[in-house]
Design brief:
binds iron/sulfur cluster, alpha/beta, four-stranded parallel sheet, globular
Length: 190
């Protein structure tokens, strides 16, 4: 049960929203979820002293999804891993956010084949897409700062649920990259 459930629907003070947004953005806990090479850059952000994400209240990468509200999908997502990823997302504390880190998690990247999910937004709603192969830790930090801005401006109540529902529906309807035109398929890797 979140703060939204405690507030009367339709009557939300902007000061309450602002305060909740400030507290939420200052206490985001990422889930530990590295999948491939991008995870090394994510680990550099979490551990290298020059990056120091403790400044943002994020020094604790949680090994338990129930104590995390940010999933950084760092690396390619195999079809086999997809249901596991979704289960971890479902177990995370709401409200929750997702950063697709790198070309592979954002779109399948160079792995335009049947084994790799062509964009993690087919599995979970994504808030920030971070390009690069791999993105540097500074780029991930920039994405996190932009996500903090989004969190600060997030409306309370049913609005967030409506946004997630719309994003999930759009992702389910989207055509996988492998089915788009102008991409060599059969025999491409022969
Ligand atoms: S985007 Fe590049 S660095 Fe990241 S997982 Fe894919 S291949 Fe590896």
């Amino acid at each position: 049960m979140g703060l939204e459930d405690k507030l009367p629907s339709g009557v939300l003070l902007s000061t309450v929203e602002g305060l909740a947004g400030y507290m939420r953005k200052s206490s985001v806990w990422p889930a530990t979820f590295g999948l491939a090479c991008c995870a090394i850059e994510m680990m550099a952000l979490g551990s290298a002293p020059q990056h120091d994400i403790s400044r943002f209240g994020m020094e604790r990468f949680s090994a338990s999804p129930r104590q995390a509200d940010l999933m950084i999908v760092a690396g390619r997502v195999s079809q086999k891993m997809a249901p596991v990823l979704r289960q971890i997302y479902d177990q995370m504390t709401a409200p929750k956010w997702v950063i697709a880190m790198g070309a592979c998690s954002s779109s399948g990247g160079m792995f335009n084949n049947y084994a790799i999910v062509q964009g993690v937004d087919h599995i979970v709603p994504v808030d920030i897409y971070l390009p690069g192969c791999p993105p540097r830790p500074e780029q991930l930090m920039d994405a996190i700062i932009k996500l903090h801005e989004q969190i600060s401006d997030t409306k309370l109540g049913a609005n967030r649920e409506a946004v997630i529902k719309a994003v999930e529906e759009a992702a389910m309807k989207a055509k996988p990259t492998i089915q788009l035109g102008n991409i060599p398929q059969e025999g491409a890797f022969a």
